[in-house]
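Chapter review: from sequence to fold.
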Amino acid sequence: MLARRACRAQCTGLLLQIICRSNLIRVFQPLRYRNYALFWSSDLIASIGQFVREVALYWLAYEITGSAWALGILGFCEAAPRLLLGAVGGVLVDRYDRVRLLTGIQILCSVPVFGLIILYFMGILQFWHTALLETLWATIRSMNPTAGQSVLRDLVPEPELMSAVSLYSIGFNFARIVGPSIGGILIIWIGVGGCLVFYGVSLMISAAELLSVRIRSSTPAASEGNLLSEFKEGLSYIGTAPVILASILAAYVISIFVGTYTRFLAVFAKDILAVGPDGLGLLMAAPGLGAVLSLIVLGALEERWSRKALLWFTALATPFLLILFCFSRNLSLSVLLLGIFGGMQIIFRTVSRLIIQIETPRELLGRVMSVFLMDQGMRSLGSMVMGAFVASFGAAYGLALTSVISITLTALTFWRLLGRVTKA
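The token string follows.
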């Protein structure tokens, strides 16, 4: 009996290894295509540089002012252009060559960065310089996420699109994990100015790689309409596509009622779990690690579940897992729950983007994608909403209540737009 159980355990382990290896190979298959490989490495380099810059910039702002308010002002300077100009960016992405647009964004983003570097090394940098240049940088970069997501369909065949979207997300989440760590080390080694130079150089390398991307007929047809009418055209299409509309509304709900939970993890680490800074680091890292691991197995999930079913499940599982986390009093369990939470959250966003990529006509893709990505700007509202609940009910009960609201609104939205869903 023991021998049979041991054999069964070995077979199970071997099967899991085969599945993981096959999915790992599958998710990296888009790198076989030269254009995608250049685009992916370009985005990875720029993303790592961006997170290094973020650590250095916030450190510098606090060093100059000694005020936490300054950090909030910088965050607003970065988020506001993305929310206000995201729609305009979607229209421009549909008007012009997306690869050349991305190249131009990388080059133009380097202008405020090198301006900041010059002021820093001249010793005359003040906080208002930092806020102004940050606003300029965020304005230029506001259309970068839309352009990057919209170009994926031109880089790989449609059967590889799921892996292409997943790998794109893996690259960003990898940068989100390692970038801040590299930034912290580089501040010690080469200082804040050196970190800013690092980011400026990464932008130039990114732009150089994008110049090598060659796509046939990548320039959309010229449009003679004004920006507002073209954006309304994108909204009209979304209104006729219930799955896309449901995924966008669910993304907004999650951003407002769940998305900014990380700002309250310090409360859980100190007051609820009593684990200190080391435990907080584990809590912060868990969602990113869960996101990367979940994307590796996403291809296998898509073979067994319909995309609509994946949307339903992950949109509801994300806030439910946050509820479980709120009532956990064990660090290991909390880290595990946040890891699964991060996986569900990124699968929802990846499947949503894939549906938009496949179902949206190419000439409308930028506008539709920009509406979806405006959920990131909704986090500004989410910070206030979740902060009010935490202030009123405490961290655990406050986040649990916002998660219940998220589940309720998402379920009603999906039921109204998509009806009953099945796994197949």
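Two observations follow directly from the output. The CA atoms of residues 146 and 370 lie 5 Å apart. Residues 1-5, 11-20 have pLDDT under 50 and may be disordered.
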